[in-house]
Design brief:
The complex is a heterodimer. In chain A, about 40% of the residues lie in helices and about 30% in strands. In chain A, a hairpin with a 2-residue loop joins β2 and β3. Chain A has one domain: Chemotaxis protein chec, CATH 3.40.1550.10. In chain A, α1 packs across α3 and α2 packs across α3. In chain A, strands 1, 2, 3, 4, 5, 6 and 7 form a seven-stranded antiparallel β-sheet that branches. By secondary structure, chain B is of the alpha/beta class. In chain B, β4, α4 and β5 form a beta-alpha-beta unit. Classes of the chains: A alpha+beta, B alpha/beta.
């Protein structure tokens, strides 16, 4: 029963974040992300990965992150700003990813404002490199959703503590 | 006469995005500031017709900067942009006499419609 309630709650939050990803990318970049079913759909095109993350403080503490490869980040930045993909520099990609996670979390926050899952947000931060994982010290419950954007994949992860 | 607009935001991506939208629609971006303090300084120097102001920025945030600008020129036109649609922040912005509060994400239509209401 308790597990069912937890799953329902996670589904509720997950839906708010999925909708936020879709709304932000379609409004700001004119892209139409397609949600992929199943887990661990990380993009496997090699190269550098960029993660934009924010801490959510509410009834539960969570971390929301968006991870994608640099080519996918460049595509999104290009569609948002008109910069040619090959001319987007690292600074553009980091700033674009930070703005993206900021807007997704802000949108989800607004959607959950009148529910028990209301949360406050910290400033976004970026993690980048060739091969890294984010580990959580405490026992957490993870919710992961992946979206296909062009040839790349964007993965949204919510780690609830 | 072309309307001159000042953009105050710590994100270069948002500057690029707004600049593209504004210039494509016949407005001139007369200045770019990356924090509230720079925004207030540039406002004094450039005397723009309108300011796009982010809220969360280093050194000086958008609410403080808007307050300073409104002190310099009470009739200044300011559109606040933020991903955080907190009622409390929106209420503070309203108290400062902010004309329009836009939540991110935004599209060209939302931006141009907001400007058309003010200038």
């Amino acid at each position: 029963m308790e597990e069912r309630a937890f799953l329902d709650r996670n589904e509720f939050i997950g839906r708010a974040f999925s909708t936020a990803v879709y709304d932000v990318l379609s409004t700001m970049a004119g892209l139409e992300p397609v949600e992929i079913q199943g887990e661990n759909n990380f993009s496997d095109r090699g190269g550098k990965y960029i993660t934009g993350a924010m801490t959510l403080a509410g009834k539960r503490s969570s971390m929301a992150s968006i991870r994608m490869d640099s080519d996918t980040a460049a595509l999104i930045v290009s569609y948002m700003t008109g910069i040619i993909v090959s001319e987007a520099n690292e600074e553009d990609l980091y700033d674009g990813t930070a703005e993206l996670v900021n807007m997704v979390c802000g949108r989800a926050k607004a959607a959950l404002a009148d529910s028990d899952e209301y949360f406050q947000l910290t400033s976004p931060f970026i993690v980048t490199g060739d091969n890294y994982v984010i580990l959580y010290k405490n026992r957490i419950q993870k919710l992961e959703k992946s979206f296909r954007i062009g040839e790349g994949i964007l993965t949204l992860e919510l780690a609830c503590m | 006469m072309i309307k001159r607009i000042l953009i105050v935001d710590d994100s270069p991506i948002i500057h690029n995005l707004l600049r593209k939208t504004l210039e494509n629609n016949g407005y001139e971006v007369c200045g770019d500031a990356k924090n509230g303090r720079e925004g207030v300084e540039l406002f004094g120097q450039l005397n723009p017709d309108l300011v796009f102001m982010d809220i969360t920025m280093p050194i000086m945030d958008g609410l403080e900067a808007a307050k300073s600008i409104k002190t310099l020129r009470p009739q200044a036109r300011i559109i606040m942009l933020s991903a955080m649609g907190d009622e409390e922040i929106m209420s503070q912005a309203k108290d400062l006499g902010i004309d329009i509060f836009l939540k991110k994400p935004f599209d060209d239509y939302k931006i141009i419609s907001a400007i058309a209401k003010l200038v």
